[in-house]
Each structure stands twice: as structure tokens, then as C-alpha cells.
Amino acid sequence: MRPIELDAPEIGLIAATRAMLGAGVGLLVAGKLSAEQRRAAGWTLLAVGIATTVPLAMHVFCKGARCK
Predict the structure, then answer these.
(1) Per-position pLDDT tens, the chain of length 68
(2) pTM for the complete prediction?
(3) Could you give the CA distance from residue 65 to residue 68 in angstroms, rounded to a whole number?
(4) Angstrom distance (rounded) from CA 20 to CA 13
(5) DSSP readout, 15-35?
(6) Are the beta carbons of 46 and 21 closer than 8 angstroms?
(7) Spatial distance between the Cα atoms of 47 and 45, rounded to a whole number of angstroms
(8) Collapsing DSSP states into helix, strand and coil, what is residue 4?
(9) 41, 27 in Cβ contact below 8 A?
């Protein structure tokens, strides 16, 4: 395993995407909202979390290598 150095903003972005994914999954399984509201919010947060994870992961994993 090779070490990868990350800046504070990159760590923040990673944490934010994990939080969005977790919140989306949590809303999908929680019972606090109506079923329609819960599904809409959960799927939106889940989609945003996944959509932002892919480019961020590519950036982090290509940081040590020369990917372009």
C-alpha cells in the first residue's frame, strides 16, 4: 500500500460525500418523513453522494500516479 497525501479541502470533500451517502441511506430506511418525502430526499442524497464520489475517487487515486 502506498501513501497518498491529501490536503484539508480534499479530506473535507471526501467526508462530505460520505455524509451525503450516509444521510441518503438513512432517510431511505428511517420512518420520520412520509414515504414519498423520504424516498425523494433519500434517493437524491444517495445519487449526489455517488455522483460526487466517482470524480473525487479518480482524483485521489490518480494523485500519486500520472493519470490523465
Answers:
(1) 677 787 888 888 888 888 878 887 887 777 777 888 878 887 887 888 788 888 887 877 777 666 65
(2) 0.55
(3) 9
(4) 11
(5) HHHHHHHHHHHHHHH--SS-H
(6) yes
(7) 5
(8) coil
(9) yes
